[in-house]
Amino acid sequence: MSSSPQIQIGVRCRRCSKFRHPREFVGGPYGYCLRCLEKHMAAMKMLEGGVPYACQECGITPMEVCERSGCDDIRMEMHYRDGLYQFLCKPCGDEYARKRLDIYEKTPFALRRGIG
Question: Hey, which residues does 33 pair with through a beta bridge?
Answer without folding.
Answer: 25
